[in-house]
Amino acid sequence: MQVPSPIQQALDHGLPDVLAVGIVKDAQGKHNPITLSWIMQTSRMPPMLAISVAPSRHSFDALHKAKQFVIAYPAAGQEEETVLYGTASGRNMDKLARGGTRVVPATKIDSVLMVDALANFECEVVGEFVTGDHSIFVGKIVAAHVNKDPNVRRIYAFGYVDYAPVERGE
Predict the structure, then answer these.
(1) Taking the CB of residue 94, how many other CB atoms lie within 10 A of it?
(2) Domain limits at 40?
(3) Is residue 74 a part of any domain in this protein?
(4) Based on the structure, what is the number of domains in the chain?
(5) Cβ(37)–Cβ(19) under 8 Å?
(6) What is the reported pLDDT for 157?
(7) Cis ω on the peptide bond leading into residue 46 (within 30° of 0)?
(8) CA angle, 107 as apex, 104 and 113 as ends, to 5°?
(9) Which region, left, alpha or beta, applies to residue 91 given φ > 0 means left and ψ of -120 to 50 means alpha?
(10) 4-9: average pLDDT
(11) pLDDT average, residue stretch 135-140
């Protein structure tokens, strides 16, 4: 049986959410990570991902300038750095260094990959759409990378800063 509900409360019933870290090079040449839960695959051919970012975020202006980004699916053990990337601003801080994240250069775009993540996707921006208080950036995937360890588990969002792995079947 359905009953009326505040919108946010009903949206929270959909948890856990997908969780990703977007990495974009800012105007100062710093690779800035931002934690995202509003992300989706939008096409298989060509492969594309879409992310939603608020204009108030440091990464928003960087996305406009760079026109490219990496999406990394953080793994179990990366919860603390993933919280940092979603709660601190990269305007005055090197969040990758502060989080202790191991990175390597991307292969097709000017960005970096998170070494310990489950997967990384290098994307070139092919479209942007304003949707209320956020904009959707659509990125064509130009390269993909996966963690060679088959035991690495992805983390999900159970709330604003409550991140944890999920076992299959849970």
Answers:
(1) 13
(2) 19-160
(3) yes
(4) 1
(5) yes
(6) 85
(7) yes
(8) 35
(9) alpha
(10) 89
(11) 97
Taking only the tens place, the pLDDT of each residue in 80-90 is 999 999 998 88
Return the number of other C-beta atoms located less than 10 Å from residue 81's C-beta. 21
**Residue at 8 is within a domain:** no
Q: What is the CATH number of the domain that holds 70?
A: 2.30.110.10
Q: Which helix (H) or strand (E) holds 115?
A: none
Q: What's the rounded mean pLDDT across residues 57-83?
A: 94
- 113, burial (CB in 10 Å: exposed 0-12, middle 13-18, buried 19+): buried
Q: What is the pTM of this model?
A: 0.92
State how far the Cα of 18 lies from the Cα of 39, in Å rounded to an integer.
7
Question: C-alpha dihedral over 94, 26, 152, 143, to 10 degrees?
Answer: -150
Side-chain-facing half-sphere of 108: CA atoms under 13 Å: 15
Segment (H or E) for 69: strand 68-73
Residue 138 has pLDDT above 60, yes or no: yes
